[in-house]
Structure formats: structure tokens, C-alpha cells
Amino acid sequence: MIVVDTHAWLWWISDPGRLSAPARGAIERADRIGVCTISCWEVATLVRRGRIELDREVGLWVRQALIADRMEPLALTAEVAVRAGSLGDGFHGDPADRIVYATARSSESSVVTRDAQMRAFDRQRTIW
Fold this sequence. Notes:
The chain is α/β, with parallel strands linked by helices.
């Protein structure tokens, strides 16, 4: 399984050309594509704030994107929450990014992300 950061999920569904070649390849090769449920919150928040526009209502977009081939929603567990909260000061403060990264670590997966801070924190488990 590969875990996709929110922007990677959006781009994979809506505009795969925005992904880097290594990111696209990692997603194409993955047997499962994990999407953290915090990413659903992030997408809805981005729409509400006018930072992104979707071609349909956000709830419908999320439901349809989660049933796409190989997509697997990954719920926030107590283990992930503790891991995210324990990352320390070396990881940037964005709670959603902490949850995405901690989810990937808990499932022993890599994260597809363009986020430079996350990639700098762990170059081995991030793909872009």
C-alpha cells in the first residue's frame, strides 16, 4: 500500500499530470492506495475557503474518489493519533500532515507528497 497526501489524492483523481513521474509511478504500481480520512476534511475545508474548486459537490466528489479503483480510506486510530502527536518539533506543525505521515508509518507504507517539509523530515518514506 501507498498513502497519498491530500494534494496527491486530488491530483491523482482530477489531474494526474500534476504529479511527478516518480509519484505517478508509485501510485500506478501500488496494490492499494491509502487515503487518510483527514484528507476528506482537508478537501472540504479547501472548497469552503475557495482554495480549490471541484466539478461536483464536495461530499459527492469524496464518496466517488474513495470508491475509485484500489482506493482505501484509512481511519484515524488512537495509535495514529498518538504517533502524530509524538512526532516532535522536527516535524512541521500541520496536524493533517502529521496524521497522514503517522498513518503511513503505522501501516509501514510510504507517502506520496510534494510537501518539502515532510520530505525533508523523512526522505526514505516519502515519494515525489
